[in-house]
Amino acid sequence: MSQGSVSVSPPPHPAAFAVQAAAPAAPAAVALRDLAITFALKTGETHRAVEAIDLAVAPGEFVAIVGPTGCGKSTLLNVTAGLLTPSAGTVRIQGDSLSGLNAKAGYLFQADALMPWKTAIDNVAVALEPQGVKRGEALQLAQDWLSRVGLKNFAQRYPHMLSGGQRKRVALAQMLIRDPQILLMDEPFGPLDAQTRQIMGNLLLDLWAANKKAVLFVTHDLEEAIALSDRVVVMSAGPAARIVGDFTITLPRPRDIAEIRTDAAFHAIHKAIWACLRVEVQKTYAQGGEASDHE
Amino acid sequence: MNRATLILLQALVGFAFLLIWHLLTTVPVFDGKPLFAPFFFSTPLDVLARTWKDFASGEIWRHLGITLLETVLAFVIGAAGGIVVGFAFARRELLAAVFDPYVKAANALPRVVLAPIFALWFGLGIWSKVALGFTLVFFIVFFNVYQGVKEVSPTVLANARMLGMNERQLLRHVYWPAALTWMFSSLHTSVGFALVGSVVGEYLGSAAGLGYKIHEAESVFDVTGVFSGMLILALFVIVIDTCVTFIENRLLVWRPDTAAKTA
User: Which of A201, B20, B75, B114 is 20 to 30 A from A279 via CA?
Assistant: First the structure.
């Protein structure tokens, strides 16, 4: 495939990076500024999950966040979704300060989030109810979306009758049917096997290419992050994790997730980012950080 | 083992039991008398004949109808109360915390001691039996609904909220189905207890119903009548339980390996 380049810019300190990123023409879809999140532990101590986070996602931009286990990647996502309130700093969504739940965002969870008592089509259709769409119309749109994610003939199945990958497809349709401006994904394909992950990755890229939304995609899989995104953001080991790297991925689109991994440019990028990420992963292991996962 | 063999063996056990009972109560052993006096143990043929007569004369249907009515009322009212209170307690932490010791105390009480009081309050008609059944059903449903609402998957809940659902929609699409699941999974137990409440209530004081029939027979040392009443009660329970299983399978179709097991 053609050559891609990587602009390696692990900033000297995060503030310098913020100045660089915060100058798009339209207001950023998501702008986190000087964000810190602290949890109160049951023992009475506090746990600083992340701090001094500056991150902007432009409209239509696909940003992946990678980092070692327990670094607070998901926490960042939950703050952007409005499920968590930051201890300090601001969250701006399309220029407006976020209060309460983020109504402009769709969220794809790692764990099963479908309502087990509803069929696939009902799970998708119910996403339109808060917007006041009539049930008949919602069911039609839901059937349409199920076809788009390749589940045309599975509409009447309950979640337990579907495979893990199929459940993710339903969840994807459920998220996208509302046409949210921002897509938040928390290791959505984590529980799936390798082949299914590739198929789901390609499906996601196809759907995203058809209607470009700002995406914040958390993953622990660096290859997946590079293959999918426009930018890969690297977080440091927790506690008090920061952003330590921001890499623009210029691999040409459309991409095929399975094929792109064999590309020479892909390897160059992977090498550059891994050099940055490896240090953090090693720190986490040194701390025995697998055990204290606060995400 | 295949199904036919199993049924055959099951039938064999029943037949053997009846045969032994029959032999012990009818074959003269000494002094021209059987080992078990029919006065105390009746005989299987007598019991079957009496049961047949009760059904044929149509007299038993009235009693069955009353017991069924009491059972259904106790279940419906008890379940409704359990759902409302279970929901309220699960959604309002403070309420649950304040009432916790009283709920535990009330549940620990053996319900039979309430029967005379209910008879005093509600008379000897159906309502004192409904009240007794209610106290049994209420707590089972209450605890299950409470648990069900408390244990809704946080991910499912967060997802529903991210879809923009308001409190009312969350109640309808998330909390309510979750609570119902738990309630249905205890359906056999709660319907069973509704029946126990009715029959015990009838037994302790009434003028109709299966419990009354058994008590009436017992008070004149009519052992055949007692056994016949028990037989009818057992058949009645099997019929109700089959209905419950049917309803359960319809309602819990979305569950993996459906609750048909929770017998």
Answer: A201
- What span, in angstroms and rounded, lies between the C-alpha atoms of B78 and A114? 31
A227-274 tens-digit pLDDT: 999 999 999 987 888 899 999 998 988 899 888 988 889 999 999 999
Give residue for tokens 């199945």: A157
Give the minimum alpha-carbon distance from B20 to chain A in angstroms, rounded to a whole number. Answer: 50
Q: For the segment B195-208, what is each residue's pLDDT rounded down to a tens digit?
A: 999 999 999 888 89
B45 touches chain A (CB under 8 A): no
How is residue B92 annotated by DSSP? Answer: -
Are residues A208 and A97 part of one domain?
yes
Please write the tens of the pLDDT for every residue from B10-52.
Answer: 999 999 999 999 999 988 887 888 888 888 899 999 999 999 9
User: Is A228 inside any structural domain?
Assistant: yes
The model's pTM is 0.77
Shortest CA gap B258–chain A (Å): 11
Please give the single-letter amino acid code of residue B232.
Answer: I
* One-character DSSP codes across A100-125: SS-TTEEEE-SS--S-TTS-HHHHHH
DSSP alpha helix (H) spans, B42-58:
44-57
Answer yes or no: is A8 within a domain: no
Both A201 and A280 in one domain: the answer is yes
- Domain end call among A150, A179, A208: A179
More confident call, B81 vs A191: B81
CATH classification at residue A98: 3.40.50.300
Q: Do A130 and B256 touch (CB under 8 A)?
A: no
What value does the mean pLDDT take over residues A122-133?
A: 94
**Is A17 part of any domain?**
no
Whole-complex ipTM:
0.83
